[in-house]
Amino acid sequence: MTAAQRLPPGPRAPEIAQTLNWLLHPVRFMERSRERYGELFTIKIRSSGPWVFVCDPEHIKQVFTGKSKDVHTGEANAVLRPVLGGSSTLTLDEDEHLRRRKLVLPQFHGERMQRYGEAMDHVAHREMQSWPVGEPFTLWPHMRAMTLEVITRTVFGVEETERMRHMSKLLGDMLDGVTNSRFLGRLMFVGPDRVERSKGLAAKLAPVHEAVLDEIARRRTAPDLAEREDILSMLVQARYEDGSPMSDAELLSELKTLLVAGHDTTTTELSWAFERLLRHPEKLERVREEALTGESDYVDAVVKETLRQRPVFPIAMRKLTKPMEIGGYELPAGMAVRPCIYLMHYNEDIYPEAERFLPERFLERPPGTYTWIPFGGGMRRCIGASFALFEMRKVLQAVVTEFDLRPADDRPEQIVRRSITMAPEKDTEVIATRRRKAASAGSAPGQASLATPA
User: Fold this and answer.
1) Nearest to 404 by CA among 358, 437, 426, 440
2) Partners of 372 in beta bridges
3) Which of 10, 38, 320, 331 is the most exposed place for a label (fewest CB within 10 A)?
4) Cα torsion 244, 380, 148, 454: sign
5) How far is it, in rounded angstroms, from Cα 29 to Cα 168?
6) Which stretches of the chain drop beneath a pLDDT of 70?
7) What is the pLDDT of residue 1?
């Protein structure tokens, strides 16, 4: 049996046409492929060969629980390497990945998360002071400003105004350069290796590298290092099992990973959460009523339903290092396998009335490990998932207690590609009216900051 015969069926259009469809019309391309070929299908992508899409929950579980030596994620994430480098949690595999993950994961759990919440409240309430009132504006840039400052404070530990502005601008400029469809097109058509070697990319990254390495140097010599609670300080103090610290290059890769994978995705998901709520004002009102009483069950369900309907990433990335039988097909070593997050989340057997925005479904039962997968799954599940969920809840509650929001246009915003993420077509257009009792609703936590620079 030849390699071609081992693969599931898929579109017969030329590779270039399929690549363009994936870049320009990903949702329609995925949906039509599943309608015609079923839960396993193959598409052809320029510069990276065939991709096998996996949509059935049992098959997804099989891929996610495969042995780390048999199923590589870091290698599959080659598209991220030009920006993140080869020393990121997202681009490492096997023992190297596990070793790094054990070091980084503890920074996103426990009581520290609650203290980060104070910074999130503070940033959200301050950013909202500049919002226009009574006229249409787009939320996405404001969500970005919030999440970027949260990253600057909680991850990089920068609090001083001028340094924060400088760092935020550098980070924002870098994101503008690497999170657009033009950059993704280059990656898809010429391949990540050539992009990684390009002088243009090096010029975009150099100012950020210089600034981040400067922060790392400051932190290593900070007299109050042991008292600081920002993630950079925690990582500087962390030690591998052999007692060695992370190198500057490793820290640089991880900090860029937190920025690109943590900031940009949360910005987009927050924009989607408001877009979804604006189409369902009764659900938005329920979020507000709950926030005013200090509860969070319903907003948590809203976040989960948003991530189901509008996952930022449509697929997870895996590459086989040995043959694997999936659904009757013997996939060869080297095959790119793509558990499909988007199509899994629209499986009517798992999510009845999947097209409807129903946060209540997550009040009735918790999300399934292999059926709700916006953060991937298995040992490669996103390290920052808890941080992202927490930040989304905090920002949603802060906004709805300070503003009444209504859509600038009654028509739901369509899904469009923004680089590797799936974003609202018009960046969530709203009209905001300030609520009279906003100050009493959230001023206490909103005016607090972290006790130490974070």
Assistant:
1) 437
2) none
3) 38
4) negative
5) 36
6) 1-5, 110, 437-454
7) 45
Assigned token pair, 281: 């004002």
Dihedral over Cα of 136, 140, 141, 144: its sign: positive
Distance, in Å, from the CA atom of 307 to the CA atom of 237, rounded to the nearest integer, reads: 33
H-assigned helices in 129-278: 140-150, 161-178, 181-190, 192-196, 199-220, 231-237, 248-257, 264-278
Which tokens sit at 397? 């509650």
CA 451 to CA 454: how far, in whole Å?
A: 8
> Which pLDDT tens digit goes with each residue over 344-387?
999 999 999 999 999 999 998 999 999 999 999 999 999 889 99
Structure tokens at 423: 């974003």
* Amino acid (one-letter) located at 286: R
Q: CB–CB of 107/231 below 8 Å? A: yes
Listed residue (438, 437, 435) closest to 446, CA to CA: 438
Which alpha helices (H) appear in 294-384, and where do they start and end?
297-309, 341-345, 361-364
pLDDT at residue 100 in the model: 94
